[in-house]
Amino acid sequence: MQLTYLTGSRRDIGLGHGRAHAAPIRASIAVYDRLFQDFVGLDWGQARREAERFGAMIEQRFPAILEEMAGIAEGAELELADILTLNCRSEISLTQASGGCSAFALERAGTQWLAQNWDWRADQLDNVVVLHIEGDDAPPLVSLGEAGMVAKIGMNAHGIGVCLNAIRSRTCGEGLPIHMALRKILESPDLATARAVATDSRVCSPAHFLVASADGQAAGLEVHPGEPGTLSPRGGAVTHTNHLYDAAVTCQVEDFPRADSRPRLERLDTLLGDLAEDAPVNEARLFEVLSDHHHHPLSICRHFNPDQPAEERMETLFGVVMNLTERRLTLRHGKPCESRDSLTLTLPLG
């Protein structure tokens, strides 16, 4: 998998991103054009008009990222509206389309781990990119995500990391779109600042952000336009899949999870509960968790399932394990049970 180094101003970062990944950015647009038509009956032009309403929210809460998105558009020879629409794809489509994803934070022997599988449509597998960003006005960070998007899953040199679980809901209000909020978290110097993205900036549609820090703190944030729900560690772990379960949020937001979300959460809890407090934990052991096939096809590691309708089929596109204490991220592109070639990145301590 290609690793892209981006440095400089917001415009420089955007230009580099757009030039390096012009082809997968266009491929991503084609994927979401089909998805929007399948799920919400919008073609790309209509989706672009739908995305316009988020511009003012971004301008108010994270204006610098607009300059970077403009640079991505210029570098890829597209229009800013195309890149804005890609980055608002959750807000446009998650009323009907729901991804997978199984995520957990784990603290053991003074080391804070953060890990997840990202499950989505198989036609996005080749459009996954790894960005190593050293901006003039933010800490060095690594983001794993889709070409043309400003962030998804990753960590920074201060030892702040974030994972994402999609939530299917009809709720959408005032706040930052999900992927802009993730980038703002990845630029945070500490966990309090990261959590403030959810509590102060707010997030305009429901999702779960699993945030953790190198000093052994972790929290699950069930974000939405209101006050987020907070999930605290139990036995050193926080786990989440694709349904809301904090009572403070479920009384406000209705979600529509897939049938596999609760079985995957129960399995995560079981597997992490089986790790004794003094058991050695390393990347290989945690990738075993991400490779689990118990209760297939409703398993943590998800494979092609011909029994599902085509538009509902989701597969694991990558697994990632982050050692936040040592600022080390290890990625397996594709299904973690099959992919033995790992990409490992280490950031300097910030």
UniProtKB/TrEMBL annotation:
Keyword Ribosomal protein among record annotations: no
Source organism per UniProt: Halomonas alimentaria
NCBIfam families in UniProt: C45_proenzyme
InterPro entries, per the entry: C45_proenzyme-like (IPR047794), Peptidase_C45 (IPR047801), Peptidase_C45_hydrolase (IPR005079)
Residues covered by the Peptidase C45 hydrolase domain: 110-336
Keyword Methyltransferase: no
Keywords carried by this UniProt record: Transferase
The name this protein goes by in its record: Peptidase C45 acyl-coenzyme A--6-aminopenicillanic acid acyl-transferase
